[in-house]
Amino acid sequence: MKLNIILSLFTVLSVPTAGFQSNFRIHLKEWSLCSSRKSVESLQVDSHQSDVQTFVVGKKDDDWPLDIVLTRQYPEKSRRFFRKIIQAGRVKVDEKEVKRLSKIRKGQLVSAQFKPDEKPSMEPEDLGLEVLFEDEHLIAVAKPPGMIVHPVESCETGTVLHGVLHLLTTPREKVTPKETAAQPEGNQENAQEEDTKVERKPEKNAKKGGPDPWDPAKPLKLTARLCTGLAQGVVHRLDSDTSGVVLVAKNAPAARGMAKQFQQRSVKKKYMAVVVGDLGPGVHHLTLPLLRTSSGKMAVFQEAQPEWGEEMAGGDMLTGDFTDVGEADAKGARGATTIVRRLATDGQLSVVGAEILTGRMHQLRVHLAQEANCPVLGDPVYGDTDWNRRAKRSENLQVSRTLLHAHSLEFTHPITGKHVSLSTPVPLDMKRIVQRIHSYDE
User: In the record, which residues are listed under signal peptide (predicted)?
Assistant: First the structure.
């Protein structure tokens, strides 16, 4: 009887035990699937996170709209693209989702969810650009009038960068640069006269007896990384109509070094322009501060102008939306200094040389038009409308653009420390008018 009781008890206990084991197996299987699912989700998140691009906002991007800053950081993408992903909630600032085009501040952490381009964002184009200077760190070219520096939504081909990309990805002969040793600040005035052609020496880290690490005969491979790097290497810009020297950095150290020099205003930028009127003899210092109007144009700020917020004669509303670096007054205007000298005049038109000491938007054009009362001939924004119309129809002038030329650029090489002085002559359309004015002035 005891044996039967024990067997019965064992049978009773064995049923839930079997059920427990069965349930345990089921739960174990479910846990395993759940764990597996979590692993897959984790992998998806990790893969997803790999498409998240992050950066810290720097000084130059302080108080700029988010979409513009993103375009600066990732120039292979358009502003339209970044507006879409902002509105879709795929951009965060300080780990908070942002769905509007707000301005961001220095030091904030921006993360944007998108996959970087694997294919080159630009195709090389043979635009016949003249190379003024080149080494493994920098390349300078002569920009013709009518060509923009980098691609924008309204013009995605035929830019200076497309031409530079062609130069770097095509076998070429080496250009012998004009360089001088770095000189004390007081001797910079004579640097250009002392320039002599020198052959580049191989880098110190080059193998003894080996080839120079930079050789234009061995072109670079066209990659998305190269396109992005070049776009980020544009250290200064010229307006579409303006011709002259354009410098592009080939690598990040050179880009940072040149950006610092432009920010510190140690780069000498000299221009030549044909203006309406006679500036008068001697050297003229144009120093009125500049501000941006509601239409996007620039204007000089002086006491004679309307009070802040009142309409100007042209219907523009003065605003403080000017975010360049430098000193600002209470009205939001930024300090600007331009040195101008008359080179020749025929009484109606003049040829002037100018040096820009600060880097404000349209600085030279605005200073000449609104402070010196001598607008650049052909300037459709700040110029004299009547003169522009007459000059365009005149058989002797035939002016179809702003007659402004970035004649020369002087700087210290950000890597070698040598003084570099670059210059390029005025284009033929402007040269003809310059010579005509000089002939009257002789």
Answer: 1-19
